[in-house]
């Protein structure tokens, strides 16, 4: 049972005593109706048959690529991954972890900035080997439509990103340079 697995993982990984973000690998389907896989083996079979895909691999692979799905396929224990630009996994964290930055409401950069802040605070990014989630198709949100259609919206988001980088630099000093350097090299 997924909830039992998650609680068991949290206990085994001593999450209450550790600064860690447990990554739940994300998948998606293009079908509005799907029989949810009951196990990792069943999910892998669906992935191989093409009824599931790694999340957003065809439109935004950078968002979840650091999860290392090839490694996940055969993993039996949690494994650590490194932060990379635009990484936005779904995570389980302690309640006292940094909160989402409230500047990023609507569409764009909420999860990316959160993971960046966790990494800046030296959280371990640990992929759970037997957990997964499946994103179901739905109509585009109002905010993503605004992002796609409005240069003003995209410009505001860029300004907020720059402010966020400046704030990280003030809080974490030289350690935060890697985020700005990675952003500029994209």
UniProtKB/TrEMBL annotation:
One of its GO terms (molecular function) is glucuronosyltransferase activity. GO terms for biological process: protein O-linked glycosylation via mannose. Keywords: Glycoprotein, Glycosyltransferase, Membrane, Metal-binding, Signal-anchor, Transferase, Transmembrane, Transmembrane helix. It is found in: Membrane. It is a single-pass type II membrane protein. Signal peptide: none annotated. One of its GO terms (cellular component) is membrane. This is LARG2 glucuronyltransferase. It comes from Atrichornis clamosus. The lineage of its organism: Eukaryota, Metazoa, Chordata, Craniata, Vertebrata. The gene is Large2.
